[in-house]
Amino acid sequence: MDPLQDGAVAPATGCDLRRILVLNSRHAALSGLTLLQRSLRENKKNMSTALASILSTRLTILEELVPAPRIAHTRVHFRALPGGQRPVQFAVLSSSHFRRELESEIETRGFDGIAVREPSDLEIAELQDFHLVPEWIRWVMPSPASGSAWIESLPGSDLRSQMRRKLRASVGVRVETAPLTLSDYNAWHSQLYVPEIMSKSGAIPSWPPVAGLGGKLNLPLPLEADSTVVPGVLRMFMFDEHERLIGGALLSVDAADKTLRLRAAAYEAVSRSARELSVRAIHEMIEVARAQGAAYLSSGDDPNLYGVDVTLGLARFKISIGMQPVPSTVGGFQLIRIFDDAHERLDAEAAGLFCFGVASRGAGRIGSLIRLGSLARANLPYQQKIELTRADMAGLQIGGAPTASAARVPKGMPLIRFDRAVYREDEVTVCG
Fold it and tell me: How confident is the model at residue 76, as a pLDDT?
């Protein structure tokens, strides 16, 4: 995912962005939760292009439960629950305004969970049934010397064999990398992005038609598709044996971090699965990084709640190719709790939701938060950030059945499970 738009929002801090988002949504929600749809439309119209894709959320004020201004709002996730009943909803409170007596009322109103943004030290220490997590995760890895070196660096012979097999599936696919032109972007957007990404339920409209690309990237670009080169952006196109466009990715080099970043990717569904185009894309990115002198690869930033905003499979895939999670510069930290009765709505297969969070509990979380919060914006090589993240964070598998398979986590990072409560007759046993 591409939450930040180059240049347009770089000077702002996470707090600045959240403040703007709340202000933009407040006027449309003064009548409470019943104006949710109106708020979504107003937000889409009024928020600038530079802010519209910062978070996978839209905000409204919970005036009825917490009447003070700008301290409570609803986060509406883009994923819709089965049957199109409604989107996933979290009640979000600002620090020091959470009260235990609010939980039952919020749950009664149909919310799936509750979050406390930028929590106080007291809340961090005392709210033991909440998980302390970054709002967004950035995925990075040191750039391998070659595609072969990348495969050899993967843990386990089974995984290495699997990657070789997936690469063989794309034999015959021609890959072409070049500076992105507006004509290229129009082809990618119309032939791949719209039919393959935007057709999915809950898709986040991060990339506009060609007329809106200049606004998104904060660049003076023409409004129509032509041969104009988009500064700083590469396109990697994939063609089958009949020269048909079956996949494409947008890449950019972050000079300050010496990182080749995957901005967006879209693949024809059949070819993506049958020919393992996602794996081929990473293999090709390694070659591009070497040509560009990039020391790191990044597969972008994700909202840190896999199974809701993004799929569990996305986290598994990124881990399988060697990507490592670090706290993102997008957003801050929050305490979250998912209501017990919400797990069946959110996770019908009982595999559990997944996120990366602080491994320690109680007051020990405060020191971890200080270190990780500073780490996100520290001027350090990503290798150091990876190592320091591993010392304080763990993979959290939340609400899975006791019989569910363990979630995959990066090598060296612990997995902590918080399984669903199991009810048998009159006894209650909490597993986890």
Answer: 60
Q: 144-294 has which CATH code?
A: 3.40.630
Encoded tokens for 74: 């609803």
Interaxial angle between packed helices 36-46 and 14-26, expressed in degrees from 0 to 180 and rounded to the nearest 10: 120
Determine the average pLDDT of the residues in 96-124. Answer: 86
End-to-end CA distance of the chain: 31
Average pLDDT over residues 148-167: 93
Whose CA is closest to 320, among 200, 126, 161?
Answer: 161
Q: Where are the beta strands (DSSP E) in 118-196?
A: 131-134, 136-142, 174-181
Cβ distance 63 to 91 under 8 Å? Answer: no
Indicate the pairing of strand 296-303 with strand 136-142: antiparallel
Locate CATH 3.40.630 in the chain: 144-294
Please list, residue by residue across 88-114, b when 16 or more beta carbons sit within 10 angstroms of its beta carbon and e when fewer do: bbbbbbbbeebeeebbeebbeeebbbb
Q: Check residue 252 and give its pLDDT.
A: 95
What phi, psi does 412 have (nearest 5°)?
A: 90, -10
Strand ordering across the sheet containing 353-358: 353-358, 393-398, 415-418
Q: What is the dihedral of CA 367, 364, 407, 311, to 10 degrees?
A: -50
Residues 6 or more apart whose CB falls under 8 angstroms from that of 409 comprise 319, 394, 395, 415
Distance (Å, whole) CA 305 – CA 137? 9
- pTM for the predicted model, two decimal places: 0.78
